[in-house]
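User: Can you predict the 3D structure for this chain?
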Amino acid sequence: MTSTSKTSRRKPTDAELAAAYGRLGSVWKAGAEVGISGQNAHYRLKKLGLAKPMNVWTLEEEDMLLAEYANHADWGRLDELAARLGRHKTVVCTRARLLGLTNQRRRKYGSAVWKYMPEAEARLIFDDFKATRYTLKDHCALRGYDELGFWRTLSGYFPDEWDAVIESKAPIASMYRRGRTFEYRVRNILRAAGYYVMRSPRSGSPIDLVAICSGTVLMVQCKLGGLNRPEWNEVFDLATSAGAIPIYATRPVPRKCALFRLLGRKDGSRRRQPMEVFTP
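Assistant: Here is the predicted structure, written as structure tokens:
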């Protein structure tokens, strides 16, 4: 075991380090790949004549820094700029400070900024989020946003769009499995209340469950998040046209289930939603 451990920690050859540097174009990434520190990798590559001193900047590199540093800093994307320059983020920030590019008063997207953000600015940020493939957590980490403030502000301004966007970014298999489990929970609640329940798995219908008891028919839409306006109105119109009661089942907190009766169509206003708690 000892000999294997020593072998696995052998010192990489100059050829291996040079090959990694040539392929990755970054001292720090090359060092990480061959298992040594960035400082050690830079020292060895400089001796080989492959890497320039860390404090030497070309005019082209400084021009790129002058043109792009502020934008990348505003959006929390300095790691991307550092990777393009083939330098560590700390080195880039140090050079930016020497060039007078850093700004301690630059707007930081903390909780206070989100709380008082105008809707027009929130719309730009929301559209940027929709255009990416990242989840909420990854997007906030990439942009340097406060995750709680991001969620509260955007879901507050755009409730009809928010849930659909969040669901679209979740893995399909995972979302289907969670939704199916929730439907089973709602089905069991209705069965315990004396209803005969039929389920339509992945049918494309706005109705997930149909429950019948003593002449009462429920048409149930099960949704882990909220119902947007088209979904709400489709469930309401279909149920009322069939003489059934439109029911919206959701999970306000983990491991809980709440049922609501839809009392009218959703008009997209900020008024209280036309629904009431339903007890089977």
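The chain has four domains: 2-47, 59-98, 111-168, 172-277. Strands lie at 196-199, 209-213, 216-222, 245-250, 258-262, 275-277.
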